[in-house]
Amino acid sequence: MADIVLVHGAWHGGWSWNPVARRLRASGHEVHAPTLTGVCERIHLATPETGVSVHVADIVNHIRFNELSDIVLVGHSYGGAVITGVASEVADRIAALVYLDAFNIEESGTSLFDNSPEWRVRQLRDAAEAYNGWQIPSDPLVPIWASSPESQEILARLTTPHTLACFTEPIVLSGAEKTIADRTYILCEDYDPSPFQPFYARYRDDPVWHTARIPGKHDAPIATPDRVAQEINTVAERVS
After folding, report:
1. Best CA proximity match to 12, nearest among 102, 87, 95, 85
2. Rounded CA separation 7/14 (Å)
3. Residues with Cβ within 8 Å of residue 110, at least 6 apart in sequence
4. Phi-psi region of 170 (alpha: psi -120 to 50; beta: other; left: phi over 0)
5. Does the predicted TM-score (pTM) go above 0.85?
6. How many Cα atoms within 13 Å fall on the side-chain side of residue 40?
7. Whole domain around residue 21: which residue ranges?
8. Residue 46 carries which DSSP code?
9. Can 77 be counted among the known catalytic residues?
10. Rounded to a whole number, what is the largest CA-CA distance in the chain?
11. Mind listing the pLDDT tens digit of every residue in the chain (240 residues)?
């Protein structure tokens, strides 16, 4: 069985992985789903300087101090950028990377906004400016993420503002992240418009990558946990 580390997306917390984590644990895996600094139960730690490097450190330290190895490292949405940064630092501990409707940063020194469509950058900058200038509320986004009224209610209740710095701070990569041979990209096919479709299109014919499409919108860990757990189990079995 595998050590699996699940990294949530922006505005979310470790809670968003609970349905998937329960299913993975039932399959015998050791599952970790920490909440990143400055969101949800750690919202009190948010500052204007809380950026993606802080979140990379969150996960790197979680891995080191829990002495994890041969990890299946999974990132949802914004969490994809985080796991790339983590793999850059502790590639020797990671067996596989899984991007679930997620960003992947391929060029060192670029930010999430550098890897996003212009409409998305404008949407998030405008939302931050209308809020407090340094945090982006989830309110405008929840309706377009949700696959059902039930999912929308959960997201509206439990998501929290996310710092703009996470999207503007460049991510510095060592190149070690490219040595991880097992990489998977999963697209949520009903989320449209989506900033993630270009990543899937780039990887689907690349022999380095495994790819999959799953039904539903961007809330897959909540709305379709059986399918998400199935995809992660497939990766875990392949690298075990």
Report:
1. 102
2. 7
3. 170, 171
4. beta
5. yes
6. 18
7. 3-239
8. -
9. yes
10. 48
11. 889 999 999 999 999 999 999 999 999 999 999 999 999 999 999 999 999 999 999 999 999 999 999 999 999 999 999 999 999 999 999 999 999 999 999 999 999 999 999 999 999 999 999 999 999 999 999 999 999 999 999 999 999 999 999 999 999 999 999 999 999 999 999 999 999 999 999 999 999 999 999 999 999 999 999 999 999 999 999 998
Q: Is the Cβ–Cβ distance between 12 and 159 less than 8 Å?
A: yes
Q: Considering the candidates 16, 53, 77, 116, report the single residue annotated as catalytic.
A: 77
**Which tokens belong to 78?**
């914004």
Cα–Cα distance, 176 to 130 (Å, whole number): 39
Structure tokens belonging to residue 184 = 């998977």
* Structural domain count of the chain: 1
Element (H, E) at 88: helix 79-90
Question: Who's near 240: CB < 8 A, 6+ residues apart?
Answer: 1, 2
SS3 of 43, please? helix
User: Do 135 and 128 contact (CB within 8 A), yes or no?
Assistant: yes
| CATH code, domain with 95 | 3.40.50.1820
For 45, half-sphere exposure in the C-beta direction (CA atoms, 13 angstrom radius) is 13
